[in-house]
Amino acid sequence: MRIMALPHVTGYEVLEKIGVGSFSIVYKAVSKSTKETVAIKCIDKRYQKKSFADDVVNEITLLKLLQHDYIVRLIDFMWDVKYIFIITEYCDQGDLSNFIRKRHKLSEAFVKTFMQQLALALRFLRSHNICHMDLKPQNLLISSKPNLQLKVADFGLSQIISPHNPAELRYAGSVLYMAPEKLLHQQFDARIDLWSVGVIMFECLFGRSPFCHLTTKQITEFMQKKSAYRDSTKYEHFSTMRKSTICIIKVQCSRANNI
Q1: What does the buried/exposed string (b/e) look like for 91-108 if buried means 16 or more CB atoms within 10 Å of the residue's CB?
Q2: In this structure, what is the dihedral angle of CA atoms 89, 23, 188, 193, given to the nearest 10 degrees?
Q3: Are residues 78 and 173 in the same domain?
Q4: Do 178 and 153 share a domain, yes or no?
């Protein structure tokens, strides 16, 4: 197995690899000047299409604009012949997907805190007419300092949506968390992020996506049919919060079937 050398990033000591994406690798590093621990997303720009380069520029542009407690903070960005480096604050608890996996599912106290923080971040985005477009547990980072905080990350697919700047009908994102309007190539607005929030909340409480047992084709067919959402889980003994979350998914699916 080939071991890749750690990248050289001017002004930073790269310590270790902490994540791998479809088109990038994320490293933990330390600033040589401030001694702050940071995360560096290393993007190989040699083999990417123009649309991907546009996504990178879009992410950097939005992160420079968005300063909020529950949105990951951009520290710097740079590039060389091979790579683009996006340097952000380091979130020591990783992403929400791993956080859930380690605990199988989250307590309602955790979920309430995270959903409140996510709601504040989305309200801030909406105030700037920004739709994230790819909300999922892998794009929500968690920091424990000074206290447990959820932070929205990865704005590569985000768009500024307003009556004067309608959303582009671009099929990109994660199907398990994708709103039916987008999945079915129909007109949509910033409310598609709320669909993703409902699915994320379900996954936090139950340890899985409500659609994890379906293929992409089956999810698409389900969204096209006028059929109610069904889940085999026995939930008579569940708390009000868990029952309400299942009801939210049912209502969302009912709305999808009437688009």
Answers
A1: bebbbbeebbeeeeebee
A2: -30
A3: no
A4: yes
Give per-residue pLDDT as tens, 218-258: 888 877 775 555 555 555 556 666 555 655 555 555 555 44
Per the annotation, the verdict on 134 as an active-site residue is yes
pTM tops 0.90, yes or no = no
Q: Does any domain span residue 112? A: yes
Alpha carbon distance 81, 196 (integer Å)? 37
Domain at 178, CATH number: 1.10.510.10
Residue set of the binding site: 41
**Do 38 and 87 contact (CB within 8 A), yes or no?**
yes
- pLDDT on residue 161: 78
Let me know how long the chain is: 259
For β-strands 149-152 and 12-20, DSSP reports them as unpaired
Distance from the first to the final alpha carbon of the chain = 49
Structure tokens at 65: 């604009």
> Count of domains in the chain?
2
How many Cα atoms are found within 13 Å in the side-chain-facing hemisphere of 85?
23
> Within 10 Å of residue 149's Cβ, how many Cβ atoms?
17
> Looking at 55, 95, 134, 154, which residue is catalytic?
134
Q: What is the sign, positive or negative, of the torsion defined by CA atoms of 54, 18, 131, 136?
A: positive
- Which residue positions form the known binding site for ATP? 41
The answer as to whether 235 is a domain residue is: yes
Both 188 and 130 in a single domain? Answer: yes
| Cα–Cα distance measured from residue 113 to residue 140, given in angstroms and rounded to the nearest whole number | 13
Domain that holds residue 20: 12-89
Token representation of residue 115: 């959903």
SS3 category, 191: coil
Whether 140 contacts 93, CB under 8 Å: no
Identify each DSSP E strand in 49-194 by its residue range: 74-79, 83-89, 130-131, 140-143, 149-152, 159-160
